[in-house]
């Protein structure tokens, strides 16, 4: 029996093959989706809306629990994603680094999040498709996030690609790719979760 | 004569708030510092082929850096000599000529005016050569780093680099292969004066405070050895780290003494995605060479700042672009190395996502709050007096390089003297 990896502290799963799989998923997420029954689509929507609410309410630990143990939270700096093996991203977080991100904010000494960003996000244009099995859904949506911090209201827009996987406890996010329309431009403080 | 008393504003151990807040001083800086001295423009690997170009700024002046049809690197003002429109509006590309979108004037990528539409409408004495694109007076590169200045009397680039040159060599010579600058970068805008960034670049005092949350992330792993930079929290002045003033405005903070053995850099790095998976592969494939390669995924631990806008930090090339007296753009160009194993370059990408996400934003927040604090006219001074007049803290070597404990404000005290020299320098040729 193989030991289950504690991905909070190690990262054996981000292999060369993992990168290949992510790039293949991006291709699928960018393609035209085939028809999916409305009930199946609603399953996906429930996850997206729940994620949005948890983030806006800063329930970050509960938010983390929506992600699979071998997840990727990816915010490319290159429009379209580029090749993360040769290019930096605004975030290319495996489970461990995603937990680092939350941990840092929770220390109370992350001055870029003192005070914390207040956010409210709109999710629209949701489309969903069957993944490689019934246990997998591909979802894409548009977003607009309004963020307020230190006297300034800003907005962020783009589209998000998700891969959802059905696990014993229900649907989990195994890939979230956040495509900002201004991914390659300068931002002021991207330390809140997109 | 100017309206400013520079000796009052820039003193040995403190500077006046107005050098960060006064927009007239900022305008003067953009003319004289970002102009009269060498300013970093681009890395040659960003324009590797003939006819490649990228657009950037010399201070506030839009500039096109081209590798012209003969392979020469030039910096052209991005301004049509006809009515003033920028002729190139893309970030980068490849072209032999630029056509102004406004009236169609056409320029070769060496700056020559190649043609104007319906030339018969101009008087017969019309001489195209008088309306070539204006270029920077001097453009030179040193081992891939391209600099430019509008000052015809500027010393050679190598003279300007001075004592920073051999440190830059050490950063480059860490590798057998060529450094490749990736044009996708971490780009940030901050609500603060550009000098906050330069002040901070050789500041060993702020690390354990401004980066407290990042250091806490390092401690999440309960390892025996210090994680990257956690050593700044443990009486850093008695550590072998140090800061230096190198001359000509350049400053240096050296963290390398905290890494004695091959493999230390890898060991002490905060973990990046894929760390364990890739380490396993690299150890199997490269055996006794593995630690050497793995070390190259971590930063060089040299913070070398070449005045006024080029900051070498970790494995990144950080560029300061002033926008206004209270606004600055900061770009962190990531680097790969052309002959390193692909796995190492991939890990380098993941390492180079760490500090821009978890470290720099906290500094940036503090810079903006400095700007807000300095708006108070009644509190005039920014203090750089740590280590000042304290016996036996500083030493000066035969090159004039000043070395001090890592938390001393020696770098800021001294680069501001060069800043003052440049701002007060009278030159007839440049207006």
Automatic annotation (TrEMBL), chain A:
Q: Which PANTHER family match?
A: 3-PHENYLPROPIONATE_CINNAMIC ACID DIOXYGENASE SUBUNIT BETA, BLR3401 PROTEIN
Family of this protein: Belongs to the bacterial ring-hydroxylating dioxygenase beta subunit family.
Per the UniProt entry, what species is this protein from, by scientific name?
Alteribacillus persepolensis
CDD domains (UniProt xref): ring_hydroxylating_dioxygenases_beta
InterPro entries listed in its UniProt record: NTF2-like_dom_sf (IPR032710), Rng_hydr_dOase-bsu (IPR000391)
Q: Which GO terms describe its biological process?
A: 3-phenylpropionate catabolic process
Task: Please list which residues make up the signal peptide.
Answer: none
The keyword Phosphoprotein appears for this protein: no
Q: Which GO terms describe its molecular function?
A: dioxygenase activity
What is the protein's name according to its record? Benzoate/toluate 1,2-dioxygenase beta subunit
What Pfam families does the database record attribute to this sequence? Answer: Ring_hydroxyl_B
What keywords does the record list, in alphabetical order? Dioxygenase, Oxidoreductase
**Would I find Transmembrane among this entry's keywords?**
no
UniProtKB/TrEMBL annotation, chain B:
Tell me where in this chain the Rieske domain is found: 39-117
What does the sequence similarity comment in the record state about its family?
Answer: Belongs to the bacterial ring-hydroxylating dioxygenase alpha subunit family.
Would you tell me the protein name for this molecule?
Answer: Ring hydroxylating alpha subunit (Catalytic domain)
Organism from which the protein derives: Alteribacillus persepolensis
Q: What lineage does UniProt assign to this protein's organism?
A: Bacteria, Bacillati, Bacillota, Bacilli, Bacillales
Does Iron-sulfur show up as a keyword for this record? yes
| A molecular function GO annotation | dioxygenase activity
Could you tell me which CDD domains the record lists for this protein? RHO_alpha_C_AntDO-like
PROSITE patterns the record matches: RIESKE, RING_HYDROXYL_ALPHA
Query: Which UniProt keywords are listed?
Result: 2Fe-2S, Dioxygenase, Iron, Iron-sulfur, Metal-binding, NAD, Oxidoreductase
